[in-house]
Amino acid sequence: MPRVILTLLFILIVFNPSVSQTAEKLVEICAAKLGDAQYLRDFQVELEAAEDGSEKPVAKYSLILSSNTQYRLMVCNAEDSDGSAIIELYDGRGFMGSNYSEKTGKKYPSFDVQIKRTDVYHIFISFKDGNPGRAVAILAFVKRL
Amino acid sequence: MLKYFSLFFLVVAVVSCKPRADDDSEAAGDDALLMMGKAETEVPRYVAEGIISNISSLLEEAFFLKQIGVPFEKKHLAATTNVERVSDSELLSAFNLGALGLNLGYMSVYQQIADLPHYLETISVLSGKLNIDGQFDHERLLRIARNQGDIDSLTYFSLHGYNRLNEYMLKNSKEHLSALMATGLFLEGLYLLTQVAQLHHTDDLAGRIGEQKIMLNDLLLAMRFFQNEYEPLKDIADELEKIQKEFRDVEITYEMGEPETVEKDGRLVIIQNEKSRVDISGETLARITANTEKIRNQYVF
């Protein structure tokens, strides 16, 4: 009997996508979509839904980027994610860009950024409309400028 | 004045992500000076953690050297034969883990992997001594290296492994180990750049070394933050300050501009329209080189 339960559990874990697509697996899947860019770092995000009347949850990370370098920031949503991840890049003076344009409503899976100044930068990851969600963002090296 | 810029930028970005500040860099510097006293202890943890998570330098310095046409030089690598000398010390083990990571990246990018198994084994010993060895897939990397396998996979899993090590440290109240690993990575990278510059001097390379002033200022900021939680970090931070002093004469000037977003071949590209210029004299470079070598050799086995 215990063997049957274990077998059933195994089948459930292996074939249930919400369990089997771990964050690590998602990083590998996302890294495989980088094309000609070289993986440098990943950011695993899981956020709850925004509460009524509150700002939507945001995951914040800091990173150092080097001058004369083109980087790629790619975001991949987990299969079981309700929300669609938005990634925003800031430097010390404020907002630089995002994979989502509020004006056009267009969303890109990734964007490149050409850095001309070595410094600390910040990426903020949230989910569109404050939905709950799970995603992975990857920073990758594209080329020296 | 410039010394305070990145600190100021950290504080501004953290307290607000509002529309961009104006381009008056002098005013920004003055504000930064006024904020110095409080800011040094008030940098949010996530910023300090972000600075010490700069694992990508494991590859970026090597990419840079390869791109400017500098050949691989085995003599710049750290030795792996004296592991027992450091492995009884948590501080030295974490520091050397970072230094070896930089070496791993250097070998991978140049596809010079004959000695790589020795480095992986030493990394395994050090991470074992620190009780963090479960985070790094040594066996997989060894298999790829021994079979002269796919270099891209080797590079990916090396960097991925270091990112996981760092994450594990941060999540398990071992931030001091992460800070030490970051210091080892940084100092080994600076050592590599300065040693190479003695043999293959170019303006690009000198500029890259000069820019390490910014990295060092940020790293010291994080080290001082975590020093409050782990006092032994103070000694190594004090050593780094000696190198920081040699960077005083490095001048970095900026021409400010607004970023723009364009679409190229269906891909969104953000272009930072700023320019930076690094001035570093031969004398300054020589002093940085000498101090870096001296301090690096105190810690690297």
Count every beta strand of chain A, where a strand is a DSSP E run of 2 or more residues.
Answer: 8
Give the low-confidence spans of chain B: 1-18, 23-41
| Strand arrangement across the biggest beta sheet of chain B | 1-4
Strand fraction of chain B: 5-15%
Number of E strands of chain B: 4
Strand order of the largest sheet of chain A: 1-8-3-6
| Weakly predicted, low-confidence segments of chain A | 5-20
Protein described:
The complex is a heterodimer of chains A (145) and B (301). Chain A is 19% helix and 45% strand. Chain A is globular, with a radius of gyration of 18 Å. With 145 residues, chain A is an alpha+beta fold. Chain A has a 4-stranded antiparallel β-sheet with strand order 1-8-3-6, covered by helices on one side. A 4-stranded antiparallel β-sheet of chain A has the order 2-7-4-5, with no helix packed on it. Chain A has a single domain, classed as Jelly Rolls (Sandwich). With 301 residues, chain B is mostly helical. Chain B has one domain (2-299). Chain B is built from 13 helices and 4 strands. In chain B, strands 1-4 form a two-stranded antiparallel ribbon. In chain B, strand 2 and strand 3 form a beta hairpin. Chain B is globular. The two termini of chain B are 36 Å apart. In chain B, 47% of the residues are buried. The interface between A and B is large, with 43 and 52 residues. Strand 6 (110-115) of chain A pairs parallel with strand 3 of chain B.
